[in-house]
Design brief:
- Strands 1, 2, 3, 4, 5 and 6 form a six-stranded antiparallel beta sheet that branches.
- The protein is an alpha+beta fold.
- The protein has three helices and six strands.
- β4 and β5 form a beta hairpin.
- The longest helix has 18 residues.
- The chain is globular and about 50 Å long.
Length: 150
Amino acid sequence: MPEVYEYRHTVTFAETNLVGNVYFTNHVRWQGAARELFLRDHAPTVLDDLRDGLALVTVYTHVDYFRELEAFDRVVVAMRLEELVQNRIALGFEYFHEGPRGRELVARGRQGVAAMTRAGGELIPVPVPAELSRALGTYASADGAGRGSR
């Protein structure tokens, strides 16, 4: 099994709906949190690039839900690189409920990101920054798709 980047989260009441289960959009927020913390932990110079005009634009996101979560559930969001080609990154996510019986898969997702730069009020495609490409390579999917050409 390839290495994954893990984001751990405890569900709060603010993330639940009137019925008491986690509102579905929070899974997408957790994808964003995993992605941002990955940058902090493994590609910190990309944070400076973001201040200097780089944009990592989310072009799509998807989540399949298998089981509901509730307030105070502990969730592990496991992120891995599925594909990196030119300026495009595809990330895979697995959401696990972590409890006394171990981990249970509760959702699976995917997110596409494009590396762009701001120029003259427009977004222009640029290659994925080298530091980010190297860092993501450690977390490539088992089939090697994550090692696409740049």
